[in-house]
Amino acid sequence: MPTNTLSDAKCKGARPADKAFKLFDGGGLHLWVSPKGGKVWRMAYRILGKPQTISFGPYPDVSLAAARAKRDALKAALREGMDPRAQRRAKRDALTFKEAVGQYWEGRGDVSRSYRSNALRGLEMHLFRLLGDKPIHDITRDDLLEALRIMDANGLYVYVRKVRMWASQVFEWAVEHSYATINPAVLIRSEKAFGKAMVTNFAALEMTAVPAFMKHLASEDLNLHSVLACRMLALTWVRTVELRMMKWSEIDGEIWRIPAGKMKRRRDHLVPLSKQSLEILKTMAARSRGSAYVFSAEHRPDRPISENAVLALLHRMGYKGRMTGHGWRSVGSTWANEKGYHPDAIERQLAHVPENKTRAVYNRAAYWPERRKLLQDWANWLDQITQD
Question: Which of 68, 221, 226, 375 could form a disulfide with 309 if both were Cys (CB 3.0 to 4.6 A apart)?
Fold first, then answer.
């Protein structure tokens, strides 16, 4: 039977049909195409006269050339009397959950470095203690649920769902590569298994309390990244996560260009930087230690500042339950509306898209002159009430 009959063009061009089908390359190697469009390399062979099938992984992750190399290696092993099933079992039994997490997430080149870092950190912090050293194929639904329920019991209702999702992706990869036979995460129904946080608005100061707050903030240690981050939140009206993930590569003169992938509404967003904001950036640049992040963790320049850093500062200042980092968006918006600034300029600066679809199409630079003036006037007012 002829071999090497497929081409990359034929593999790429294969379209799903009502039923799964195979594209044969010869020597037992074929590309299996599912009705949903998934493509997996498989090879048929015999052990003691009994037909067997082995998977070489998904296409195009495993290229045509790589699949052929795996076929040739398998045939060589068979000629030596080796059983690939036994080799696979040994390989599978040796892979721990911790190792699987590392292999899968380090190979995710389609996500940002910060997202990959967050996923790795979440799995390490919350699942490795109970599951890290267990062979991934031995982990059951109950094992995974036991670890996740610790997070749920600690009130991490949103985060536990993220960690379950990140773990699920690892198990899917493990199943595809024959390290596991099931994905236990899909057997856990988050809406039933975990609690839900009470929906509340982000705490924000009344306007009359802002002057006293600014004076208090000015008395804090300006060497702390959390203090400067809190002031930057006040000056820019961005969400806390957007500030945490702020990178030097996003600063373009007097403009902060936040890419769509970091925004809640998945649209690029421009933030005009006031003179006061630029002064903070100048201070942070002198402390950057080569970090990609503007506000890096105090002792880990490779990581952004903690998601709780600003909140912990506010609690220490005595504003627990009265103010959050996110609360500056509400405070700033209230001030701007009271001062009579254009409502659309205010909404665009908050990265809100107009609900009325007949209005102007969303433009990341819409109302730019008004927004520049708005944030500079706001920054000047904050300085004024701090010094009065």
Answer: 226
